[in-house]
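Please think about what follows:
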Amino acid sequence: MEGRVLGKGFSGEVLLAKGQNGEPVAVKSLSLKDISHELRDQLETECEIFLGMDHPHIARLLDVYQTRDKLDLVMECCNGGELFERIAEQGRFAESDAADAAWQMLLAIKYIHSHNVVHRDVKLENFLFEARDVNRIKLIDFGFAKVCSLDAKMHVKCGTLAYCAPEVLDAAYTAKCDLWSLGVSVFITLFGYMPFRGTEEQQTHEIKKGKVSVRPKDWREVSERAQNFVTRLLIVDPTKRMSAKQALNHPWIAERDMLERRPFLNEDTVDAFLAYGELSQFRRASSMMMAMALSKEQRAPLHQIFLDLNPDRTGTISLRDFKDALEGHVKGEEVIEEVFRQLDITDAGQISYTAFLAAMVSWQELVDDDLVKAAFRRFDKADKGYISATDLTDLFGRNVDAQEVTDMMEETNGANRGMLTLEEFKEYLQNSHPNDPHVLGVAASGIPPSEDEEDSDSPTERNGHRRGCAEGDLMEPILEEDPCLRQVHAKHLEKATVQMALEVESAQKRATVQLELEVEYRSGYPVNLELAPAICLSSGGAVYGPMAGPFHL
């Protein structure tokens, strides 16, 4: 713990510290000594809500440590300063920068509202920049947050007066209170001062009346769209105030939203999704652990890809979104649905931000020693120096049975000793997830084709009329698949023998040919074995037709 105070929230101070991988983290220490049951419940609620948040514009809660007298929340460190401080430095934002900040704030608010969470303390001080040299902001401090339906009435007066909605002051409000607070925040970014000023009594009076104080000259300097956006948020009647969804669709924000949208999905992203769907359960869990430990720099290039996969900006990827994105890249809805099922880690019918990162983490060549060590430590919570079957049971809980845990240990070669060391974990990750998928083309004879054959585009040559074979000597395959492609699911081995039986015939004879192929492959990926429809071994000899299977690994 470095001890430097980063900020203060409703529940306590936030201090700078170093995480397990050396990255700076923010630690909020909360005393549990002599606190009331009501306050303890409030702290528990804050932790539960914060732990459930998983969005690129919400600071991450990394770990929670509790002793008898203290509760420590270890959070992602956003050391770029408050949005309020940045405005104070500049005086006010250019309108384009104000629109960008409003858009980012709205993405966070839309996400929490879609998960039935009301923040109740939206303000510029609760949005932090990731770093001094970037403009990405994140929402923090869920000390006042409440889980409830968006139209449920709340009655506790809370928040910060200057940002409070009129109905909060009347102690009868809904989730729309967050949108009023957003309106105040956007007003400040555009004009550099508060819309409601004076003593506490004066502010309260003006807020309830909706009487905004703005200099006419300043008002005329911003666009009509910006004026309209602020006006439609600072409406006293919450039923007439925009919702987060409506605010995101407002022309002033929609224009900003379209700036970085990419109409087509990158092929590497598609390949990463498909590869993740073929991983074993333990390998997927390892990717998830690494995703949680990614640095800001490692997550940066993936940020917009995730947003593009969620056109409705709910902060998660639905099955419909996923199908729309992969359409044209992947044949067969059943393949897309199976990959989606593997990524839907909570069975909620959606892909979370962390699950998306887990699919991308190895493919994007982000894995390094620090990331592997961080993932290892998340399995080895007791810091024993190895991962045990008990660690896996604790991690997966009731989602897996004892046999599945044993299978996972066998997969990592850790079953004999009942432990998996860091070096073994590294080796397992290297061998279980290559940087790209491989399709293994195998000639039935085991003899590589000549250059002439390999380069030939002739349809007749591709159908078996090879050099050295007289046309009359060819035996036609009984099987009609042309070409035949079979997918063999390679589970956890690096070598396997594939046995096949083919029936071939000519005018003179009919025979069954037994084939045995030695296959080398990477664990965790499907292996595609492909034979040409007919390959001649020698003039007058047998010709092997398409593979008949079955295949056994």
